[in-house]
Amino acid sequence: MIFHQLQHELDERATQGLLRQRRTLDSPQSPHIVVDGKPYLAFCSNDYLGLASHPQLIAALQQGAQAWGVGAGAAHLVSGHFEPHRQLEMQLAAFVGKPAALLFSTGYMANLGVVQALVGKGDAVFADKLNHSSLNDAMLLARAEVRRYRHGDMQQLAQMLERTQSGRKLIITDAVFSMDGDLAPLPDLLALCERHDAWLLLDDAHGFGVLGAQGRGSLAQYGIDSARIVLMGTLGKAAGVSGAFIAAEQVVIDTLVNHARSYVYTTATPPALSAALLQSLQLIEQGDALREHLQGLVAQLRKGLGGLPWLLMPSDTAIQPLLIGDNQRALGLSEGLRDRGIWVAAIRPPTVPQGTARLRITLSAAHTADDVERLIGALHELAC
Ligand SMILES: *Cc1c(COP(=O)(O)O)cnc(C)c1O
Q1: What is the mean pLDDT of the chain?
Q2: Res. 164: pLDDT tops 90
Q3: How far apart are alpha carbons 345 and 251 in whole angstroms?
Q4: What is the reported pLDDT for 17?
Q5: Residue 107 Cα, ligand 1 centroid: separation in angstroms?
Q6: Any atom of ligand 1 within 6 Å of the Cβ of 234
Q7: CB contact at 8 A, 144 and 170
Q8: Residue 384: what pLDDT?
Q9: Beta strand pairing call for 100-104 and 244-248
């Protein structure tokens, strides 16, 4: 019986400490959430600037709904493309310094669409082994040849590029690695692209809004740009709303409008969301003080977690993973924190490699120094 098999597989997962379950929030996203009627101090959202429930964004969404209704009603290529979408695309492109941009409903869909539109049979994709799952799924769907290099290993990537006979070559990477918090070596990647006439798809889900002057992202952080770089940014993390965009040369965007299946065959996002995002983009641009505060919290946490029996992984970003290793131990620690009123998610395989279960601590500009001190104190208690 199929149900019996499914149940057996789930039971197996549970014994390995790998069963995934959802928790329902009874409050808006913020460092202070309510789950099952109990308040928690939370360190696991990607709402890095604390914009997800910002009053100005709530007002912009309300006004957007007044002006444009609730649903887009059709795909962008039919009759679902509205003025707020068009304005947001223009402003996003200008903000990240690219000629054009295209909105997608989610980052997952943007990655599926862009890889499949740019490469296919006879082409090759080169991918960092620790890339986000959406990039992994995207390259399988594209049916190009797939080569995965060890995390950050530019020598191995160079060898792969030298040996390839394929047509188009596309390197794809997280700019900030989502489960590790470290940065991809963008200048080296770009140099390899130039030497081998390859393209670079940069997934800046965790850099957009957070890194670089005015939060312009990883490219601004490194001070680099090139027409070879196709940039993906998400709008549900630091931007606090929902959605994603690709920014690139006009001809790339035109190609996506015609060939990216996850763009063509789906209903456009509500135009009111774009109205909220236009406001969010302003707050991001004016948010250098928020980013400075966030950077201060990162330094405070790293200093405070020294001397723990677990490795705090090398990262300067808001993603600060504490490497535990064993799945059950990671779950146990997460529960120990929960007993103390603190919410940190335990991240386990297959999201991360076997034997590298971790507490993925994320900081937000909405946290205070006292919040971070509470987390530090609780982790030291649990280490005893
Ligand atoms: C979150 C994330 C995505 C997916 O973006 P969504 O908008 O949540 O679908 C893609 N890439 C990376 C690196 C991410 O962290």
Answers
A1: 97
A2: yes
A3: 41
A4: 80
A5: 5
A6: yes
A7: yes
A8: 84
A9: antiparallel
Q: Is the pLDDT of residue 124 over 90?
A: yes
30 included as an active-site residue: no
Could you tell me which CATH number the domain at 18-49+288-383 has?
Answer: 3.90.1150.10
From the list 373, 153, 342, 330, the residue with the least C-alpha distance to 321 is 330
For residue 254, what are its two tokens? Answer: 């035109």
Q: Where does the chain hold its CATH 3.40.640.10 domain(s)?
A: 55-285
Catalytic residue among 105, 178, 334, 364: 178
Q: Is the CB of 174 under 6 A from ligand 1?
A: yes
Rounded to 5°, the CA angle 278-284-286 comes to 110
Above 90 in pLDDT, residue 190?
yes
Print burial letters for 355-367: b (CB count within 10 Å at least 16), e (below 16): ebbbbbbbbbbbb
Name the CATH topology of 55-285: Aspartate Aminotransferase; domain 2 (3.40.640)
Confidence of residue 108 (pLDDT cuts 50, 70, 90): very high
8 A C-beta contact, residue 18 and residue 327: yes
Q: What does the alpha-carbon distance between residue 371 and residue 196 come to, in Å, rounded to a whole number?
A: 48
Distance 206 CA to ligand 1 centre (A): 8
Give residue 296 CA to ligand 1 midpoint distance, Å.
Answer: 25
Instruction: Give DSSP secondary structure letters for 326-363.
Output: SHHHHHHHHHHHHHTTEE-EEE-TTSS-TT-EEEEEE-
Question: Residues 124-137: what's their mean pLDDT?
Answer: 97
Residue 18 has pLDDT above 90, yes or no: no
Active-site annotation holds for 178? yes
Split at pLDDT 50, 70, 90, the class of 19 is confident
Positions of CATH 3.90.1150.10 in the chain: 18-49+288-383
Of 54, 237, 293, 367, the active-site residue reads 237
Q: With 90 as the cut, is the pLDDT of residue 171 above it?
A: yes
To the query of whether residue 237 is one of the catalytic residues in this protein, the response is yes
Q: Which atom of ligand 1 approaches the CA of 243 most closely?
A: 7
pLDDT of 21 reads 87
